[in-house]
Predict the structure of Quinone oxidoreductase 1.
Amino acid sequence: MTQIPETMFAVLQTGDGYSGQATGPAISDASDYLENGEIAVPTPGPGQVLIKLRVASVNPSDMHFIKGEYGQPRVKGHPAGFEGCGDVVATGKGAEGLAGQRVAFVAAGSGAWADYVVTQAQMCIPLRPDISDEDGAAQIVNPLTAMAMVDIAKSEGDAFVISAATSQLGKLMCMLGRDLGLKPIALVRRAEAIEPLKELGAAEVLVTSDPDMLKKFAKISAELKPRVFLDAVSNQQSEQIFAAMPNRARWVSYGKLDAELPSLSRMGQLVFMGKKIEGFWLTNWMMTTPPADQGRVVAEVQARFADGRWKTDVSAHLPLRDVVSGLADALKKTDGKVMITP
Amino acid sequence: MTQIPETMFAVLQTGDGYSGQATGPAISDASDYLENGEIAVPTPGPGQVLIKLRVASVNPSDMHFIKGEYGQPRVKGHPAGFEGCGDVVATGKGAEGLAGQRVAFVAAGSGAWADYVVTQAQMCIPLRPDISDEDGAAQIVNPLTAMAMVDIAKSEGDAFVISAATSQLGKLMCMLGRDLGLKPIALVRRAEAIEPLKELGAAEVLVTSDPDMLKKFAKISAELKPRVFLDAVSNQQSEQIFAAMPNRARWVSYGKLDAELPSLSRMGQLVFMGKKIEGFWLTNWMMTTPPADQGRVVAEVQARFADGRWKTDVSAHLPLRDVVSGLADALKKTDGKVMITP
């Protein structure tokens, strides 16, 4: 294996814990939240691996996180960054199988915006040789999440509901839904999104500001019987959509784009209609889904990148050492992902 | 088999659908909701059985139901009554295995307060010969529900939370919890209930009106780590209790004693802590739980009645033909169940 140095360059969080605010992913200057640093290369513990970074990608969740507005607390002095791809250069006990492999990863131990990264073996996916480093660096947070959530929807029937459907994840889920012969019902904020989403694969598109929206949804729900609601918004309208879904419906929240707290108007539906309210978090999915189910979903994602059905649009390249000074500017282009290289 | 007559005596619902009110189980005169009638003996369809009634019991859910305040709609002209015991005298296709058996049942087809009752085979439990008709007539709605819910709690750990713990069901669950080596955490409305519930088996008892209740609960939760909340109240305090429970906690609602709508203050816990909100309805449990799991739970209930650990307290006996005129009076004694005989 490669010689591993004692220290490394890393982009470090300057904030600690939660900010208590909810201001969204936008930043005007990354140095408000991050600083350059030289820290010890971490050692992988049991079940962990050490990865030498090839490429890290930037996701909205990284921005929520460094601002202290994500579901996990910041740790001051630890590297930022969730997602990337690189080579496993050291392994802890029980993770030896990954030694030497090129992997896509999500960082659960130390952040991805560093020369070296520690994470759990379960958070790594060995990459097929025909997948590029950049596709590998952006393969998990959006594509795998989309595939894993659509897989849940598919297990319950053919129709499912997606809120905030114009997001990257929403669009991926519409495309996937159609590819798999399912019927995505897309919820959007603006009428201009109706046609593009139908072209991508949505069976129905509803505009959330339409005063007749719930009436229209009830009609579609009675006809298509969607059993799963993949919801990034989680507000009162979400609750009303869930209440209009048929028996055995699952409201699966994976985000909270609206601060409004939904109140449960139809508790009895949980009892008498077998409905459920739950969440989806990819980290949890990767840590707990049986290997066979996970393997099926991962293989489907990699096949799509390998044969070109999916590709990662890159809007900017940023050297790791320029993240603090250059990230805010790089994020101004919104036609793809920012890729960070050591 | 017995000769089956063409018509039968039955106590019929006079209301239809839902009342739109929530006034609780009390009635001043059963004739406000019920009337005597002579109707055709029903014919069991596929998967159903016809039962000749031995004894029917009266539960609070019967009162909610005839008043139009239950989670299922009334059907005018159909018999009332959910629970009883009797002999299977005719079977539909696929239900032949129950022919001639004495069973405990919940009525899903036509009500239990009639000479004959039709229900699904899955809603019948063949009775051991050493169980009395009266214990058989009150074996499902409370005892089996308690056992099935505690079985869910047990599958997730040793501590669990029970609201409205002074109800018959709540007390049964406390007793069962201790018997099975678990730690029931009981929530009650009045401080007088603390000692009796501790004697029954509660590991901890909290009074919901105590201003420090949530603080005390958080401390107990951190220590005992309850993963299941069996909740008959389902109000905002329930939501706060759920929010104070550890990761993977399940809020299992089985009733709505408080009309207040809970608002979900910690949606992110569903995502990042893997918490879930769901319901429990015995009918659904009986229709969908795998036979082996169901058999284990049923056998445990029958063993308790057979060896005398459990018995049904009977407060009054009421002939079927006197239900309309006498039920309100019979329910005034609250030290046991009213038993109805043909």
Notes: Chain B has eleven helices and 15 strands. Chain B has two domains: 7-138+312-341, 142-283.
